[in-house]
């Protein structure tokens, strides 16, 4: 069950509680709006983010995506792109980068995937 939460409009320095697929994180509103034309920034429009969308019973903004992959999305928004070592998580991160409209992250994931494949090909040739 979800509730609509009403509160005063926050400034960019206010922290936001988010529930992404059951995984809870807290971050600054400015972090979520870093890439202003991204889908994730548009999920938190100035002056309206606290009245639009779904909220869980703890009044966290709910996003129905993979919470484990969101850690990497959030790291990218904070300025440090880290790639998961798990292949299936890498695929989820690529999907989420596309979903959130984070084209730079999508390109980094793609390039990282190509580099990993090249390493495996070189390693297989050595055998």
TrEMBL record:
<dbReference type="GO" id="GO:0051260">
    <property type="term" value="P:protein homooligomerization"/>
</dbReference>
<dbReference type="InterPro" id="IPR011333">
    <property type="entry name" value="SKP1/BTB/POZ_sf"/>
</dbReference>
<dbReference type="InterPro" id="IPR000210">
    <property type="entry name" value="BTB/POZ_dom"/>
</dbReference>
<protein>
    <submittedName>
        <fullName>BTB domain-containing protein</fullName>
    </submittedName>
</protein>
<feature type="domain" description="BTB">
    <location>
        <begin position="14"/>
        <end position="117"/>
    </location>
</feature>
<dbReference type="Pfam" id="PF02214">
    <property type="entry name" value="BTB_2"/>
</dbReference>
<dbReference type="InterPro" id="IPR003131">
    <property type="entry name" value="T1-type_BTB"/>
</dbReference>
């Amino acid at each position: 069950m979800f509730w609509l939460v009403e509160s005063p409009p926050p400034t960019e320095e206010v922290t936001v509680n988010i529930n992404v697929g059951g995984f809870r994180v807290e971050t600054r509103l400015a972090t979520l709006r870093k890439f202003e034309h991204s889908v994730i920034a548009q999920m938190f429009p100035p002056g309206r983010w606290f009245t639009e969308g779904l909220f869980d019973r703890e009044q966290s903004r709910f996003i129905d995506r993979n919470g484990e992959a969101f850690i990497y999305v959030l790291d990218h928004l904070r300025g440090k792109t880290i790639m998961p070592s798990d292949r299936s998580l890498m695929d989820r991160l690529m999907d989420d980068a596309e979903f959130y409209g984070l084209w730079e992250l999508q390109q980094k994931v793609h390039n990282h995937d190509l580099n990993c494949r090249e390493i495996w090909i070189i390693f297989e040739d050595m055998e």
